[in-house]
Specification:
Chain lengths: 242, 339, 290
Amino acid sequence: MTLLALHELSKSFGGLMAVHNLSMAIEEGEIVGLIGPNGAGKTTVFNLISGFLRPDRGRISFQGKEILGLPPHAICQMGIARTFQIVRPFANLTVFKNVFIGALNRAKDKREAQKITCESLEVVGLKEKQGLLARELTLSEQRRLELARCLATKPVLLLLDEVMAGLNPQEVEEMLQLLRTLHARGLTFILIEHVMQAIMTISHRVVVLHHGEKIAEGPPDEVAEDPKVIEAYLLGAPKGEW
Amino acid sequence: MSEVLSAEVKASRRSIGVFLLAGLALGIVVAFPFVASPYALRVGILIAYYAYLGQAWNILGGYTGQFSFGHAAFFGLGAYTSSLLFAKLGVTPWIGMLAGAVAAATMGAFIGLLCFRYGLRGPYFSLATLAFAEILRVIALNWRAVGGAMGVLLPLRESFWAMQFPEGPPYYAIIMTMLAGITMLTYLLEQSRVGAYFVAIRESEDAAEAIGVDTMRYKVLAMALSSGLTALGGTFYAQYFSYIDPNLAFGIDVSVAVLLPVIIGGVGTLFGPIAGSLILTPLGEVTRRLLGGYRGVHLMLFGAILVAVILFLPHGIAGAIQERQRIGRRFSHDPPRSS
Amino acid sequence: MRGTYLLQAVVNGILLGGVYALVALGLTLIFGVMRIVNFAHGALMMIGMYIAYWIFTLWGINPYLSLPLTMGVLFLLGAAIQRFLIDPILDAPQHNQLLLTLGVMLFLENLALFLWSPDFRTLRLPWLEGAVRAGFFLVNKPRLLAFLFALLSTLALYLFLKHTETGKTIRATAQDQVGAALVGIDVRKVNALTFGIGSACVGMAGALVTPYFYTAPQVGHVFLLIAFVVVVLGGLGSFTGALVGGLIVGVGESIGALLLPGSFKELVIYAIFVLVLLYRPTGLFGERYE
């Protein structure tokens, strides 16, 4: 069943096309990687889905309902949660409280929210750190905290924006393990990632964006061989992560 | 095992200590009007009064992170509403107070809606609130019906109904009740869902929005709450001093006086405004008394203290104490607090 | 007849606007480089006014001749404020910087109150009294002089920023503090220099208005609020914006005073302010700033 459908989305900033005529569908239970060179418009797509930006044209539906024009908090309440490329923890609050506020999204009362918070912290492995302030965590821990905060809102679909950036290989492995666990519990994911090794192993399907347009889509190993994709990356990415 | 035990003992000792301290404070507060000289009582009233105003500002500025530099707008609205209702229509200030609070809360919500709708943040929000306060000041200054530059002199009618008393104790009781009430309210807010949303907005508006917090709604709510409560302080001022004019009610000095104790005491902390007022108000009174011939010395001192606090104690006094406690807890293997 | 009044008001407004522009320039320069909204700006102007006043009262040297001294003192005062008070907290949240300058304002204003009492003081220059006739208009002499001085110094500041090595350094720092540090610019020095120049500007404006405006400890409030309006109207951090904004506010106030009773003219200014904040917080010439 189609969970999320983007239909001919376009968004430009002062004449610059960030996303152009993008259509894609996400099936329930999928892990979809959204990749492309820097400036391809990936984060803009997340901002459009999560309601932080309004598209110039196009439609977005989630579970068959039109969500275009809803503010971000309403979209979150419908079951889409996101992380930010640059982490935005509630820096001066405890780890527990960070997640607790996310849990209030669905919890009926405090006790339920506390239960959800504990579960979420358990899943991401931050249970021991719950008394610390968010600003005292390492970057890797802050990313997991942000994930826990998202999970606490009880989402159906998670949009993860470079959750593996800046992590060392072991931490990347742990993150992948975590995502697999969550997937096994029935969550659907869209991932933006620069760590290619990681995204290629975990994604069922990847969508490649270049200059705001979809240039390829399919299983990871097929897309990796696509000449258009290789060309885009050779021209666009100085990093040579392939 | 022994570690856990000792931590528990420590915790229970600490709570006994806190209990005793709270009891002692309550005793002092209750006994004070019976033993204090009229002058000391006046200082006590002013301490509670500035602490009250600080608490009202703190809900918006400290907990929700929206730095208003124009709380004089709401203070003045409260003072003018109750005073005019009393002076012109004979309505008791007890009712006028509530009317003023409703008016200020409505105004606050309106200003909030406007500012937040257009995405004003940080210094832009501060400047906008400052401008609204100035607009009200200019209107009050030029509007004959509300007294113009002459302001409003309350008719002297000493009675409970008129909220005017020949001596200090009743005023003391009123402002102490108001302070206790707002402190309790802030405490409950800290524990509540709404309070959690407020601090989330302060820490990161985008992140709060992303996890389902209707930031617009809660910012406007904080604005209305803080404005309405500030207005109650305005009525108290008018009743206590029996006179208000556009500058006393809407001037920049008021906006500064409202936020000063909070910054000194600790932004976004429960006892910060009280601590700040406990330090600033007596200090101001003493310097004024000793150096009465030289005007402005106490405000000069306040300015210097403000600068020093920002430089050396950016979280204020209560903030610094909290931080020390927190670090102390971490190293004493206490179980982490659950919220 | 009505039309003449209106034109006269416009002329007065332009003269007024020149001074507003000079006040606002200092504010916008400081904001542009350090992203600091300086609440002490009006207080610095007040200090400039008192310096000019006392030099005249004690030694009989008129405010125009004492300008270099006034500006020098203000430059040092501003640079010191930046170096010792603001520099240590440049990385702190923005509202802390705002509060710090508020503290400086409180301190300076009440220092003046303590030293010189709340009396309104004015200074008389007999040779400057009266007005010159220019065509249909009467132009008040001290206002004209203030305007010309303001215009000249604005031009000088513009050329300085545009063409000197130091000026270019300041502009580079305004673009990007971190980048400037990376290419070897001593950012702290530039910050102190900028705050000094901004303070000298407003001190000069203060000295220039003393022949026709009262001097008092809280006189800065009036100009501070107007400077905020001008700067927000023109765009925080924009040089041209401050100039154009100053003229618009000056003319607006002048016409408002003609048409509206009492001090309602101020309402016009604040109304412009709120509208600009709401509809175009980046001002007429400002860039997007978050």
